[in-house]
């Protein structure tokens, strides 16, 4: 065997081994103990919204067909699950702090919604959406107000703070008396006030100008948007979903 051929085989074998090892480590990270509250979190009033094993406390929007899966300590949706409805909490919330870990596949697209009601045909026609997307590799052109951390179609994120697709991120959403903050990996990326003059102007001139219920309710469900990328293998997963009322 020629030295060059042997070298190519060794490099290829090394890459395969490295990739296999990376996949193993990735799965290990996904299956370690999560979805638990510390004694301090319990004392501070946090409530766990996902037990890591079941869909208890959640249902599909308007009880439509859905393919959400609780697996390996994660709550996941995949684009290949046709007709996959968004997921919402059983409970409704007014003033709260929400913390949630998430990751998406390359070219993925999803979102976290809040103040969702079931008065309209889709979750996003009532609830503002914290956008989750592969900013750099999504197969279609996206605007600044479509990038990760944005209040979708309203306020763009002030900085880029998302990790690469396949890596975990931590999102925090704070809603208190109409004042809203979006946090991503410890950085505040959006701040706005519902129903003030600036917000009303943005709504009246943008995507939601013909959506009378958008942002209209001061109380609603937390929603997880199903994976809706054009890439069939795309998916989104969540874990460590917890909330405390303010």
Automatic annotation (TrEMBL):
InterPro entries on file: AL/BT2_dom
GO molecular function, one term: hydrolase activity
UniProt keyword annotations, A-Z: Signal
Limits of the 3-keto-alpha-glucoside-1,2-lyase/3-keto-2-hydroxy-glucal hydratase domain: 45-244
Record's signal peptide: 1-22
Protein name: 3-keto-alpha-glucoside-1,2-lyase/3-keto-2-hydroxy-glucal hydratase domain-containing protein
Organismal lineage: Bacteria, Pseudomonadati, Bacteroidota, Chitinophagia, Chitinophagales
